[in-house]
NADP-dependent oxidoreductase P1
Amino acid sequence: VVIKHQFEDAPKESNFEIKTGVFSLSVEPGSDDIIVKNLCISIDPYQINRMKSFSSSHHTISFAEPITPGEAIDGAVIGKVVASGNAKFQKDDLVLGVFTWAEYSLVKEGNIIKKIESSEFSLSYHLGVLGFNGLSAYAGFFELCKPLKGEKVFVSAASGAVGNLVGQYAKLLGCYVVGCAGSQKKVALLKEKLGFDDAFNYKEEKDLNSTLKRYFHDGIDIYFDNVGGEMLNAAIANMKAFGRVAICGVISEYTDDTKRASPNMLNIVYKRINIRGFLAADFLNVFEDFSAKTSDYLRTGKLKVIEDVSSGVESIPSAFVGLFNGDNIGKKIINLAEE
Ligand code: NDP
């Protein structure tokens, strides 16, 4: 899957193209060439910031390289080694890495993040709940926000890959948790299946500031922000003194460069609010701890996994576009082949 050209606003399926070609499945012994058959692909919002043409002119920095039109898009993928010139990887090894959005990828050792040794859980969990989405939720909530039992937590994009986990971790700690999402179906999922104390559909609310007052009479201790824009402004206006705000992502701003959040800075001063952005990759030091605790929650059924799965490379463009329309419920995964 490639982009035809860079674009500036919301992505459309017509921005993408699927190319086919002949691919040799043999490698030179002793080379660093590894051929991977891709099994499942993670679809992530940040990728749009690599596809835009305006990012450089607006001083936005991206933590990943821009995607070149016509060249295969890369991202987090799990695959199975079919041929390897590198002695560290054998045929049939399961590997997680940065591979292309394609049926097969020719990769180097440096593209592989790790081998997946244990098959205790569904493979796709290593892209979501046990991967970078899970780590974002865990590290962003526990390490940045330093939550205490009983504190009041607000999460945006709460039914999404990261958001649903933040809410569930917060409930497991004993916090009061409210989430917002873009449909009644998502709101019902949060309240009925994931144990959120309350949830609302932000698309039905006219004044987000008073909406948040309705759910947090005494203010918000922790806001986990996935969306930025007006929701961030409203959350800041409703924070308690010494509140913490983790800026995980600002998806509402990815497709509309004119909608930057502009919170009331005096509120931040007087209420001594701590706002911090982060990348999951900053927290590899807590990965072991995160992985052990989360695996345990999964084994005991304390944490629910919400995945939204499509099949085949041809489903990638609409799956990606769907992230920005709220089509996905939970972690968006593309299955390409069975293990
Ligand atoms: P999600 O699974 O949450 O999918 C995106 C969701 O965002 C959509 O389903 C939609 O849900 C919501 N959304 C889309 N457009 C808007 C909009 N204009 N306003 C409000 N909500 C919108 O994706 P992820 O969990 O993977 O990512 C969530 C956020 O976390 C993103 O901002 C992402 O970039 C960021 N992120 C950051 C990481 C880090 O290391 N800092 C790592 C991973 C993700 P709805 O129906 O509710 O509108």
Observations:
- Residues 132-145 form the longest helix (14 residues).
- Residues 5 and 17 are 10 Å apart (CA to CA).
